[in-house]
Design brief:
alpha/beta, Rossmann fold, 2 domains, 7-stranded parallel beta sheet, 15 helices, about 15% strand, elongated
Length: about 450
Amino acid sequence: MSQNSLISPQNAVFVLISFEGPDRYSQAGGLGVRVSELSKTLAEAGFQTHLYFVGDPNENPEEQLLDGRLVLHRWSQWISKYYPKGVYQGEWEKKSDFDNSLPEDLIEGVVRPAVNDGKITVIMSEDWHTADVTIAISDLLYYLGLRDKVIILWNANNPMGFEHINWGRLDFVCQLTAVSKYMKHEMWKLGVNPIVIPNGIPGRLLDAPNEEYATRLRDAFKEWTLLFKIGRWDPDKRWNMAIEALAHLKRMGVNPLLLARGGAEPYEGEVIALAENLGLKTQALYLPDGAQPASETYLQALESVDADVDMINLKFFVEEELLRAIYRSADCVLANSGMEPFGIVGLEAMAADGIVFTGATGEDYARTFENAVVIESDDAIEIAHYVLRILADEELRKSIRRAARQTAERYTWDKIVAELLTKLEYIAMRDGVGIEPG
């Protein structure tokens, strides 16, 4: 955080509102990770921070972390207990509960005490589920005469649910933000103009990956050109393109192996069927019966793969330390999405010195053959050709890995928070929100 920032822990309180959050129940994608890391970074910087999210119904409704600076508010638990499959099961009931019950509680529990302490409140809402509650919070603040004590942001991480948003009202009551220029341009089409505040990664991801894990992985897969892809089983992730590139590489005389980690989506079946129709041998890799989910177990499973396999479908959760070792050990990481609002996987892999193949939408950080390889088409031959180019040039591989890490260093959450504070100062000045000297 900038030492010269006008907004400081002495004069500001932060509130984040999101459907997803840090509980396993509350995570379905990158949003849960985003709000968890952002709220943690704000609290570590000294700000009193509150995170409202649809929480695990079996956890405490309120939990204080980091010496009380970070407060988790698990909302809609009385509804969630009837929907055990996760945050988005029963989403409309949960959204209605957010809209109707959260504004008064937040204002009386956070905003008014902050005003009494001479502080402003910064409210940051995430994605379409929170658009209506954001409007309701602003309206109630106006009614109570407190609107000039609060800065409200609403952030778009992706275009999902845009059809449910009253853009005119939302744009009127708060400052819209987006995670990339790509998302900014998507929102221009709707007649609004958000400020870009990018996603980030936690600083711990800049630590060197576990060298023992990386060495064992390189040894296990030394006979192959190792490709790795992780993401939801979704057409937007261009899994089929990755599979077709795998087949092209095999026909070109390369001995490729794709490590794949998807989700629980049914599109997996189409991807596996395509691989088999192209003559590729696939193997679903599970943990042995009764095995404990630990790094050593995962590594042993990976070391046991068949010698003639072309694609390994990982059917277990890949924890962070092992994931980073895979990023580092793979010859190429395929984050080649057709539509990616930001591209956090690519950035995480770059932090681990990975060579990342990204798409060309929201990956603002990617510069082709400088710190990554940017795929401009939906033609699988483009991936195959660039893989061959990478394999043939050791100096290029080294320079891309070096530049990738330097790029990741610019996107840690502490740097994103510093950028956020500067933009908040502009918004406060524009909207007449008074900031007491900290």
